[in-house]
Amino acid sequence: MLEERGNIDLSLAYFLKFKIPKGKRILEIGCRFGSLLHLLQKAGYQNIIGIDIDKGAIEKGISKYPELEGKLIHYNGERLPFNSEEFEVVLMFDIIEHLPSPKQFLANQVNRVLKQNTGKLIFQTPNKIINIPWEILQHKSFTAYKSFHPSLQSYHSLQQLFMATGFTQILIEKNNLLSAHNVERVKKEIGFLSLPLLKALQKMPIIFFPNFWGVAYS
């Protein structure tokens, strides 16, 4: 069974709350195996494309979800192989933190392929204030996280990043921390304290919330 790294069910629920019309053209950047796209297609979305730098993950995804053949694409991580203003919606769940040059990529690639004035970037990315201590705990290293999370953001730096790359009407908000995925993941690290910790974090102000969810308009 293919194991996605992100919280696919929560990402799907967050996307669906925006009530995007079924006919809109949607691009997921960092789709990995395409599990989210598989669920979107089951929900009635047909104009969907997923792209990822991991060729092996794309191949495994096509094998697992043959209905997505031609909709899962491998690329080099630089220029998105699409025309300008080709998509109404771009999804980036757990991707911004991995970008070596987020300002350049968001401005020159993501904003470019979105419909101007009406396009939506729907995203989720971890909060550096919470993620850095978490990664240090997991990897027993003060620096290991920098190799895979070079672009972690705070609440304010994320706002500034979107404004600097041409996005407007930026909404950054909290989401449900008490999902089965989150509880199980934290339980592996700290045991029975996982649920009390997540309940406490759920009540924290947005600047201290573990993950930022939101939308930014092109």
Give an account of the 3D structure:
The structure is a single chain. β1 (about 25-30), α2 (about 35-40) and β2 (about 50) form a beta-alpha-beta unit. The chain has helices at about 10-15, 35-40, 55-65, 100-115, 130-140, 155-165, 180-190, 195-200; strands at about 25-30, 50, 70-75, 90-95, 120-125, 170-175, 210-215. The chain has eight helices and seven strands. It is an alpha/beta fold and about 220 residues long. The chain has a seven-stranded mixed sheet with strand order 3-2-1-4-5-7-6, sandwiched between helices.
CATH-defined topology: Rossmann fold
> What is the strand tally?
7
Q: pLDDT below 50 for ≥5 consecutive residues: which ranges?
A: none
SSE topology string: HEHEHEEHEHHEHHE
Oligomer: single chain
| CATH architectural designation | 3-Layer(aba) Sandwich
Query: CATH H level: which superfamily?
Result: Vaccinia Virus protein VP39
- The first-level CATH class name: Alpha Beta
Helix-strand blueprint:
Elements: H1 8-16, E1 26-29, H2 35-42, E2 48-52, H3 55-64, E3 72-74, E4 89-93, H4 102-113, E5 120-126, H5 128-139, H6 155-164, E6 168-173, H7 180-190, H8 194-202, E7 211-217
Parallel strand pairs: 1-2, 1-4, 2-3, 4-5
Antiparallel strand pairs: 5-7, 6-7
The gist of it:
The protein is an alpha/beta fold. It is 37% helix and 17% strand.
